[in-house]
Amino acid sequence: MKTLLLLFAILLTVFACKQKEENHLSNPLVIREGLLYEDSISAKPFTGKHKSQMRDMKVEYDVVNGVRDGDFIIYFSNDKIQMEGKMKNNKNNGLWKYYYPDGSLQTSGFYNYDIPDSIWKWYYNNGKVSEEGKYKNGTRNGEWKSYDTTGSLSILRLFKDDKLIDSTKVN
User: Fold this and answer.
1) Residues 64-89: pLDDT tens digits?
2) What are the distances in angstroms from CA 42 to CA 4, 24, 28, 150?
3) Would you say 143 and 160 are in contact if contact means Cβ atoms under 8 Å apart?
């Protein structure tokens, strides 16, 4: 009987924790005139951390005066981060990282108000870089390097204003 009561207490605790976890998700925000509001009757734009469910993924982001501004994170259904970065005035800005479902890094790079800018890197599941190159105002410029799964350079490409100038197979 004590075992049955203990099992019931554990199940009740697990259920209560699960309810709390589900309750932390926010109601969907309402967009009016380009700004986010807590509901359709609010006079003041939303400010705070918004958490919601999108299919089997969780999404959370910061909002300031109705505009996405700050952290932006999407989680896989296994609660590992799928992508994370910063937003400024509803635009991707700064370092963004994208992950494989196992949690290993897939891609990283910088945005300048939604435009890829600076160094971007793509990774194999084993953590080795598969490709890297530089964007300038959203276009590929300079050397772009591709690597095999062991990390050895395999192809070297040269871009100017997003146009391939030269491609050399290495090895």
Assistant:
1) 999 999 999 999 999 999 999 999 99
2) 49, 20, 13, 55
3) no
Of 41, 139, 29, give the one whose Cα is nearest residue 90: 29
Whether 124 has a pLDDT exceeding 60, the answer reads yes
Question: C-alpha distances in angstroms, 26 versus 12, 36, 53, 119?
Answer: 24, 13, 9, 35
- In sequence order, what E strands does the chain have? 30-32, 35-37, 48-54, 57-64, 67-75, 81-88, 91-92, 94-99, 105-112, 115-123, 129-136, 139-147, 153-160, 163-169
Query: Where does the pLDDT of residue 151 fall: very low under 50, low under 70, confident under 90, or very high at 90 and above?
Result: very high
- Stretch 11-33: mean pLDDT: 58
Which residues make beta-bridge pairs with 125?
none
Q: Which of 58, 40, 41, 19 is nearest to 49 (CA)?
A: 58
Q: What is the 8-class DSSP label of residue 104?
A: -
* Distance, CA of 96 to CA of 15 (rounded, Å): 35
